[in-house]
Amino acid sequence: MQLTPATVLVVALGGAVGSLARHGSEVLLGTADGVPVGTLAVNVVGAFALGVLLELPLPRRAEVTRLLLGTGFLGGFTTYSALAMQTEVLMRDGRVELGLAYAIGSVVLGLLAAVGGILVARTVAR
Fold first, then answer.
1. Separation CA 59–CA 63 (nearest Å)
2. What is the per-residue pLDDT for 126?
3. Helix (H, G, I), strand (E, B) or coil at 31
4. Three-point CA angle 44, 7, 63, nearest 5°
5. How far apart are CA 110 and CA 105, in angstroms?
6. Residues 64, 75: contact at Cβ < 8 Å?
7. CA–CA separation, 44 vs 47, rounded Å?
8. In this structure, are residues 82 and 36 in contact, taking their beta carbons and an 8 Å threshold?
9. Per-residue pLDDT tens for 68-96?
């Protein structure tokens, strides 16, 4: 797919909506005992959704859909930067074990969610 003003706009719109959805989820879910549950949830849900989206057999003309939802919405929805910052804050506050568990757990859960999304999409596509 070529980089055009239209594709940039599609990604930007998806990213804006995804970022708003992430913020709302983080506000709604907040933290539990210092663990940023909102960020963890959006990253795991986003990894699952991206696994589904990338594995579904969409026709070539659906590349705009992948840009809108994958690169745009899910790119704005998920957040590695918040994961990194929140991990650093936990560790700086003396909660090193919790910070490490949060960081490692987020990556492992995200990977498992992405694989789960791929498997679900493969099953649905059959």
1. 8
2. 83
3. coil
4. 60
5. 8
6. no
7. 5
8. yes
9. 999 999 999 999 999 999 999 999 999 99
